[in-house]
Task: structure prediction
Amino acid sequence: MIRPREGLGLRNGYHSPQLNVEVRLNTNESPFELPEGFYRRLGEVTSKLSLNRYPDRSYSRVKEALAEQCSVEPEMVFAANGSNEVIQSICLAYGGHGRKAMVIEPTYAMHSQIARHCGLEVDLAYREDPRSLNFVEFERNLASSNPDMVFLCSPNNPTGELLDPKIIELATSASDQTVVLDQAYVDFAATPWEYIAAQNVLQSRTFSKAFALAGLRFGYLVASPEVVEILEEVVLPYHLDSIKQAAVLCAIEFAPQAEETHGEIISQREKLVKELIALNVEAYPSDANFILIDFGEADANSLWNGLIKKSVLVRNCSGWPGLNNHLRVTVGNATENQRFIEALAELLR
Ligand code: PMP
Result:
């Protein structure tokens, strides 16, 4: 008999509908194609593979290349099919009945969903003000929950802000508490990514956003070698196929070109924020490649539908905790952003 679904915390309508529209600004993908020459190089390397054989189970070249990128040792890198699978592997290793995770809403919904699927009890705390998580509030919630595992997201999805470093420090100060720090959007932030040298911190990152490779499904984690060893035990054998491993190496070769797009996304983001403010709506300041918008009294559901009629798809966050009448827009290229702003301006008129 199927496991009862109540209590699994499946947020109604969580997954963004994949609609056939002209302007797709709903899932925080990169608007840019892969760098010139990427697909040619991918063709070259994949034509040399022997797909009759299983892939390198320990994906050692991928680990080495990622370790070099992050200035850590290869033994400190774990990778999987998207950072969602990284999070699932963590929950399988650290979860189970009798274990508790703390999640502070509003944040990335998959943290609590995956944790519950893996048998963890999830303590949900809610920010008093969705715009930012303040230290005192976090300290209070952490003390009253006393979880085995804490999920933090910085920059946070969907609000966009970097967490106060004091929050991360406090969470990691209890050595028996595992801290999952989801840094999917860190490449768009004002401060560069840094390795946090603490045994209980697991920093996850993804190729889906800044690397423009959402279609590849690849994410990774940097943590202590002891943590990585445990995760390798939990994950299925040969989980990273040979084509993916080759594609990841290829993407790392092209990393400098991919990084050139980050500046453009950041400047488009700042332009969009100004344009939104000019439309008299509240745009949350963002360190990510998306912007959360508070429409106040205006009905965000009908705005979302109106945008779809104009072939512009954004994320409707209205049903999310504390986010009544909020929409989240991914920063697209100049043309896409203009289409969005023009469509929104017409609807607000
Ligand atoms: N973490 C956060 C905060 C995200 O927003 C997302 C994707 N929306 C993910 C993880 C998952 O990314 P992926 O599985 O594509 O690596």
